[in-house]
Amino acid sequence: MKLKHRRLLIIIGGFTGLGLSAFFTLRALQDNLIYFYRPSDLASKKISSQERIRVGGQVMPGSLTPFGKGVRFRITDQHTSLWVISSGLLPDLFREGQGIVAEGFLQDPHVFQATSVLVKHDENYRPPDAR
Questions:
Q1: Is 124 domain-assigned?
Q2: Is the domain of 91 the same as that of 73?
Q3: Percent of the chain having pLDDT more than 70?
Q4: Number of domains in the chain
Q5: pTM for this one?
Q6: Separation between Cα atoms, residue 61 and residue 126, nearest integer Å
Q7: Residue 20 lies in domain
Q8: Average pLDDT for 104-114
Q9: pLDDT level of residue 47 (50, 70, 90 thresholds)
């Protein structure tokens, strides 16, 4: 076999190995991805009730109510709103009008079952008042 052909086989083998490793890496990462949606995005997407997703928006004022062993509230992105049911503990900064990100499962197009709720806050640090 000529040196030219041997070099070509090594290059083709290298690219094939690189392609296979990239394919298997992306395939493994796909199982760990959790996508983020806004309430208006969910109206147009077909999402399985077994797919874990994140939903973000502002808690609508007056919507926070007890629900079974947890709470129920609506979040909005100023276009569409979505009911969120959470049976876990809510963060201390949670309040109406606050931006949140909830992780869980979409039960139907208008109800989201949250397994965890995260509160979005501003970046301005204000120390406690000195007494």
A1: no
A2: yes
A3: 95
A4: 2
A5: 0.70
A6: 25
A7: 1-33
A8: 89
A9: confident
